[in-house]
Amino acid sequence: MTDTISLPNSLRSQPDASGHFGQFGGRYVAETLMPLILDLEKVYRAAKADPAFEEEYDYLLKQYVGRPNPLYHAARLTEALRKDAPAGKGAKIYLKREELNHTGAHKINNCIGQALLARRMGKKKVIAETGAGQHGVATATVAALFGMECKIFMGAKDVERQKPNVFRMKLLGAEVIPVTSGSATLKDSMNDALRHWVSNVHDTFYIIGTAAGPHPYPELVRDFQSIIGKEIKTQMMEAEGRLPDMLIAPVGGGSNAIGMFHPFLDDTDVAMIGVEAAGEGLTGKHAASLAGGASGILHGNRTYLLQDEDGQITEAHSISAGLDYPGIGPEHSWLHEIGRVQYMPVTDDEALASFQRLSALEGIIPALESAHAIAAAEQVAPTMDADKIIVVNLSGRGDKDIFTVADALGVEM
Amino acid sequence: MDRMATRFAACKAQGRAALITFVTAGDPTVAATPAILDALVAGGADIIELGMPFTDPMADGPAIELANLRSLGSGTKTAHIFAIAADFRARHPDTPLVLMGYANPMLVRGSDWFADQCKAAGVDGVICVDVPPEEDAELGPALRSAGIHLVRLATPTTDAKRLPAVLEGASGFLYHVSVAGITGKQQAAQANIDMAVQKLKAATDLPIAVGFGVRTPEQAAAIGRIADGVVVGSAIVDLVGSHGDAAAPFVQQFVAALSGALTANSRETAA
Questions:
Q1: What is the pLDDT of residues A88-109, one digit of tens each?
Q2: Under CATH, what is the fold of the domain B3-270?
Q3: Where are the domains of chain A?
Q4: Which residues of A are catalytic, by number?
Q5: What is the Cα gyration radius of chain B?
Q6: Closest residue on chain A to B73 (Cα)
Q7: What is the interface pTM, i.e. ipTM, of the complex?
Q8: Which end of chain B, N or C, is more open, meaning fewer C-beta atoms within 10 Å of its C-beta?
Q9: According to the UniProt entry, which residues carry N6-(pyridoxal phosphate)lysine (chain A) (predicted)?
């Protein structure tokens, strides 16, 4: 498809003025919200041009989040894969340690940025949707830090399944609102967050957790998460004196992946793989919007969606609650369509195996989301020459997932 | 004059606002919908809004959301909705019919396909909740070339600077969403509605209909004194929710009360 689409000089210059990445993105919201998101765009442009905004963001990332986090050479994982690879094969694997951030995942990078924007707009209340609770905890954390009132919308099923995170959010001073509408999962918590927002636009800021939603959210979330890719560039030059050959990241909505990829989009020698959740397999229940979906409109943007022939949204499934969403950020849809990034499905079982292998080999328990990316690296590394370098985004830590994994493995705790 | 303009003109001639009623297509079933639509007309509805169910109706409150889920749960497909519309048009040649819903089900087969289906089924207008003027290219051009009205929404957050963009390409009528919120929940203060409608009337010749949160004949009457149309949705949908397949007579009785309240306005004016 690449030759039929006219590409901009830089792949890093998207979206266009109206918020589109090719045919994707845009602003598909109710009229009530339009003035607010136009205002948000103005505020964001002003913030981007304001050195004081960047200074405060950088300060908080360093002193509060703990950045930069390490780029770690996973020697034992590399060696284990080389053992079974053909002679001379087996790329060197590095892990970007986002799981070492305060609150245990990449989510906080974005929440800090959006809370700073909320403050600039004079909003004293923030809301967010959450699946497993990671984005909810990160939002509740920054709300506490900034002294803002915080409501977290969470599917009733997830409230029941993720009690530790629900308690964390409450400790941090947030109100957790169980969502019983629809299928009571992540997409429904986003619906209810939008319903609350539209009714409280005058004083409430919606901290969207991924690089999706109406423009300018996909752009600003990407920009706040781009710290991941920027750090990798610097750290890799220090460690190896060159750029990596391949980047691998898990993709639900895709904020950690776009944050990792975006600074490298114009580096044509750097290949990229986004890993979608294939659940029980692409012929069964899954959450792979690119592999198994089609272009459509949901939650404020045009993007690839899991849907039926009438445009009704179908339920996603993944063992990883963070990937359990029937859509994907619009920039990923565009990068998929122009062929700049390859997207690869990984099943629940493959992710479970990698969850255990990384824990045992490196002493790092990855989030199930990140375990999808590890699984992809395990498949790809043995096909690459041993002098090639892969960086995997270890987007979150797996403590939150131990109950799910134990359950899937049939272990009584 | 087309069906929509004719109906607004007729109501104006009678000195009253048009009664615009909403139900969700296929709620509770495809088979039960025609009788409910007939009940709306028999009760005195001037214009029918037929909701296209969607799995994720994020601008709707609990009443209409549940209606969407009931409809989809009983197997409603887009083809059924156009069949319901076409049959309605055959039974009621003079009553304007407006499809209301979300972008994805409307655009999944392309906007031209959707506009053609609307035209073939005798649909007069379309309200799409999540296609604002900024994304008009997705839907507007196809509807306009098929001669279908694109009814736009103005809200309490639509300020004077933004209103021209909303009005550009709007037709049929202008739907004033009286509260910043979702359907069927809060209710706007009458003074705010009066002020908003006056501002909108100064900016356009399109009829102004007011909706969101209108639940009683008294409210309808109060709004009808200033607006050209009053939209009632959730209160009717609640009746369908509680009476199911047997909802038609309850719907007709309630719509008759709404209609009576609007007609009483015209007698007041005449006296």
A1: 999 999 999 999 999 999 999 9
A2: TIM Barrel (3.20.20)
A3: 21-63+107-221, 66-104+226-409
A4: 107, 129, 395
A5: 17
A6: A182
A7: 0.96
A8: C
A9: 107
